[in-house]
Amino acid sequence: MQRKIDTILEYLKNHDVDYADIRVTDMLEEEISTENQTVMKLSTERSVGYGIRVFLNGALGFASSQNFENMERIADKAIELARASALTLKEPVKLSQKEVVVDNYSSAYKIDPFEVSKSEKLDLLFAAEEAMRANATLVKTTGFLRFSKEQKTFADTEGSFIRQTIIISGGGIQAAAANKTDMQIRSYPNSARGNYHTAGYEYIKELDFVKHAKDIDKEAELLVNAEECPSGHFDLVIDGTQLFLQIHESIGHPTELDRVLGYEAGYAGTSFLNPDMIDKFTYGSEHINVVADATASKGLGTYGYDDEGVKAQKVHLITKGIFKGFTSSRDTAPKINQESNGTARASGWNRIPIVRMTNINLLPGDYTLEQLIQDVNDGLLLSTNKSWSIDDKRLNFQFSTEIAYEIKNGALTGKIYKNPIYSGITPEFWRSCDGVANKDHYVMYGTPNCGKGEPGQVMHVGHGCSPARFRQVKVGVNNVLSN
Amino acid sequence: MFSRTDYYNIINYILKRTRDYDAEVLISGSVEGLTRFANSEIHQNVYENINTINIKLLKDNKKSELVTTDYSEKGLDAAIKEAIQNLEYAPSGDYPRMVKHPILTEMCSQNSELVKACTPENRALQLKESFALLPSNYQAYGIYSLTSMRLAYGNNNGVKRFLKNYYAKVNVLVSDGNDGTSYYSTLTQNSKGFSLVDIFKHVINRASINNDRKIIEPGEYTVILEPAAVASILMYLSFAGFNAKSVQDNYSFLSGKVGEKVFDERITIVDDWHNKNTMPLPFDLEGFERKKLNLIVNGVAHDLAYDALTAKKDEKKSTGHSVAMPDRGGIPLNLVMEGGIRPLEDIIKDSDNAILVTRFHYMNLVNPRLAQLTALTRDGLFQIENGEITHALENMRFTESILDAFNDVVEISSDRKKIPTFLGNYYVPAMKIRNFKFTGKTK
């Protein structure tokens, strides 16, 4: 393969490209899911191919294929596309500088998940479902495991040659209860998506589905007959299984520089941020410190080098509430006189790298969870994301969670509510934060399915966070509902 | 680029080596060139050629599945071997049988004129011509793509399926530089009558009235939802309501209500791939023929979409709506909603006080049992007074039960539009609805 790569890069240089790179990816994925103690999916997927990216006279073209026999034809296609792009070019694309790197990287793992038998994995899911059903009356129980092993090679006309292997493991369980008019769910470890780490099968053992089944089974049953969550303005303690997505939607996305520059305007939208706000804009309270950290342990957005060959790094997005900067790529960073901070990622060999979240982490604060709750007179503890929606500038958001626990006079009362919804405007919400729990409560969450780009790309990104408290947040919509 | 013969050769190679099993092979192929533009220039220009082979084996009530992109003999042999090995670990289950009839279904469209019109160079030249129409300070964003989609299926019952389609897709968003935006999306299989310049003119015109936006307060309003907005709502109803899996799981707003009147009697929604305003999809990803579904007829819930597994559970036949996601079941992809009596233009002229909604953004389910959805408006929200658009409005969030909204219908337009969505290509009218709940502001 190295010979083929060297040959094609030489071919591209001989066609006078400004710059070109090639990514060869071999992706192996396994998905196992059960539902009501029946196997729903037991599949292995392997995808191998390459993508060639070309900048020619400042214009971009990208072509990909799974056929390694005639790579020159794909290189020609990329050049043809770059020439077509040039027909509308206003200003040649500049790429920020990067180091020439020859290196290998492997994500850390202890147990290769692809060496664990499928029967062991199925036994685990069946046992978890049995544990949930033993304790509650449920209409549906589900369990799922997903694993991936991505082996990719990046090489470019500047001389970089980087091999990376990244293993991801994760999954989840869910309990659903229903009556004639309602259905409610509870999920572990993190919403219907499950939770994932760059780790091996040891993470699945750590999750211990069977032990945690009791955390969710009875609650699903109780929720069906619980009261609807009241509407009003409440103090909220939001735990990590919801907060991770709040971070994702209202910090991770608006700080992507390509959104700011309009590159996503025709699809996912833009951002309320602009470069003039750096070091000036109060994004949140002093308790809010957020980093984009591609080096964080076990994060879904952890790697050695991004898909432009730029080394993984930690980028400060918000420090003590003040907005500090964006995530960027080699073509976007020069627009604000910066260098790429290594967040260009492609979802596969057939997709172009674009600015993506890495691990967007809210750094831990000083409180225990108990202390956060103790200072709430009339509020709610919200857990586990269920629904999410935010506007195209990333300002007006609305989330719902699986459950709300009542807090009165500094303590959980034991009462639960169903269908909690909360909404707000991004900077107002983050400014209302007056406490973040400490590192004892810090968990690396993530989402395996962040969608962006055209053609669409689905990316796995991490979000480390501890629970946090927010004051006087709008809950519910009943003030404008006629029933 | 693979021909039909190439696809059948791969399928036959696999089936020959899996004769002892109930084996089925699905190959999904796509050749796509997509030109993406932002700030009125092409900023991404991509091409992909991909074929994904899905092998399913069933024996002694055990099932395994393997997917590969390696179609070399060595790659296929490795895939077959692993698929067989996986059966060892699979527990027994009650799986549906493979499709048996009809033996052959093929639909092949050649569209050399469309292909010629949409080469990378021609796409760029058409965009250049369209960008030149933009007034100063206006910018354009979007995509212009040409896709050749292929599906090939075969199983050890001797069944074969093949589909090849070409289509061009355009999404255009125009901004006046001051958040005044407008948007249009279309998909065509015919280069005749397709004009990127005309699309740009329409979008520029609409963006030019989306300025000096006023703010309104949350509350209940009479709205006129343009077809793109209606299509978004129907998309969520399709996978969280019209599919049998969501009813079986007690998740659907139709749970316990099939056969009952759930919407206004003027609402009729079918799933019909024969309608030329949707995309021809004669079979599903399990090889079953796609049946027409009368989902809602005069407001009454009738048919549900089934794949083979959900059909077996309800002791019915598959309706041919598998999307190869067993946790989702069958999903209708060709929704067609009946039109009303008067065109949208007349409905607007006849409105004393209403809000015109161009489209929605980031829609999501809040409570599926109530068909409660939320989303933001986007790219044009306009106040109508005494039959005319008087001014633009800042975007709003709605949170609404569609069971309520579709029972509060004032009127449905006679004219309909083809709307491409994430889950299929629909043909839908506009709808005027009273008491629609806007629950949040964006400014």
Write the layout of secondary structure elements.
The complex is a heterodimer of chains A (483) and B (443).
Chain A: H1 2-13, E1 19-35, E2 38-56, E3 59-65, H2 71-86, E4 102-106, H3 118-135, E5 140-156, E6 161-178, E7 183-188, E8 195-197, H4 202-207, H5 209-224, E9 227-228, E10 232-238, H6 240-252, H7 257-260, E11 290-293, E12 314-319, E13 322-323, E14 344-345, E15 354-355, E16 360-362, H8 369-374, E17 378-390, E18 396-408, E19 411-418, E20 421-425, H9 426-431, E21 433-436, E22 443-452, E23 457-465, E24 468-475
Parallel strand pairs in A: 4-6, 9-19, 10-17
Antiparallel strand pairs in A: 1-2, 1-5, 2-3, 5-6, 6-7, 6-8, 10-24, 11-12, 11-16, 12-13, 14-15, 17-18, 18-19, 18-20, 20-24, 21-24, 22-23
Helix pairs in contact in A: 3-5
Chain B: H1 4-16, E1 22-38, E2 41-59, E3 62-68, H2 73-89, E4 104-108, H3 112-117, H4 120-131, E5 139-155, E6 160-175, E7 181-188, H5 196-207, E8 219-225, H6 227-240, H7 244-248, E9 269-271, E10 293-297, E11 300-301, H8 308-313, E12 335-337, H9 344-349, E13 353-367, E14 372-385, E15 388-392, E16 396-401, H10 402-405, E17 409-421, E18 424-441
Parallel strand pairs in B: 4-6, 8-13
Antiparallel strand pairs in B: 1-2, 1-5, 2-3, 5-6, 6-7, 8-18, 9-10, 9-12, 10-11, 13-14, 14-15, 14-16, 16-18, 17-18
Helix pairs in contact in B: 4-5
Q: How would you characterize the overall build of this protein?
A:
The complex is a heterodimer of chains A (483) and B (443). By secondary structure, chain A is an alpha+beta fold. Chain A folds into two domains: 2-225, PmbA/TldD fold (2-Layer Sandwich); 228-481, no CATH class. Chain A is built from nine helices and 24 strands. Chain A has helices at residues 2-13, 71-86, 118-135, 202-207, 209-224, 240-252, 257-260, 369-374, 426-431, and strands at 19-35, 38-56, 59-65, 102-106, 140-156, 161-178, 183-188, 195-197, 227-228, 232-238, 290-293, 314-319, 322-323, 344-345, 354-355, 360-362, 378-390, 396-408, 411-418, 421-425, 433-436, 443-452, 457-465, 468-475. In chain A, strands 1, 2, 3, 4, 5, 6, 7 and 8 form an eight-stranded mixed β-sheet that branches. Chain A has a five-stranded mixed beta barrel with strand order 10-17-18-20-24. In chain A, strands 13-12-11-16 form a four-stranded antiparallel β-sheet. In chain A, strand 18 and strand 19 form a beta hairpin. By secondary structure, chain B is α+β, with helices and mostly antiparallel strands. Among the domains of chain B are: 4-166 and 190-198, PmbA/TldD superfamily (PmbA/TldD fold), CATH 3.30.2290; 212-233 and 339-441, no CATH class. Chain B is built from ten helices and 18 strands. Chain B has helices at residues 4-16, 73-89, 112-117, 120-131, 196-207, 227-240, 244-248, 308-313, 344-349, 402-405, and strands spanning 22-38, 41-59, 62-68, 104-108, 139-155, 160-175, 181-188, 219-225, 269-271, 293-297, 300-301, 335-337, 353-367, 372-385, 388-392, 396-401, 409-421, 424-441. In chain B, the strands form three sheets. In chain B, strands 1, 2, 3, 4, 5, 6 and 7 form a seven-stranded mixed β-sheet that branches. A five-stranded mixed β-barrel of chain B has the order 8-13-14-16-18. In chain B, helix 4 runs parallel beside helix 5 (196-207). The mean pLDDT of chain B is 95. At the A-B interface, strand 2, strand 3, helix 2, helix 3 and strand 17 of A face strand 1, strand 2, strand 3, helix 2 and helix 4 of B. Strand 3 (59-65) of chain A pairs parallel with strand 2 (41-59) of chain B.
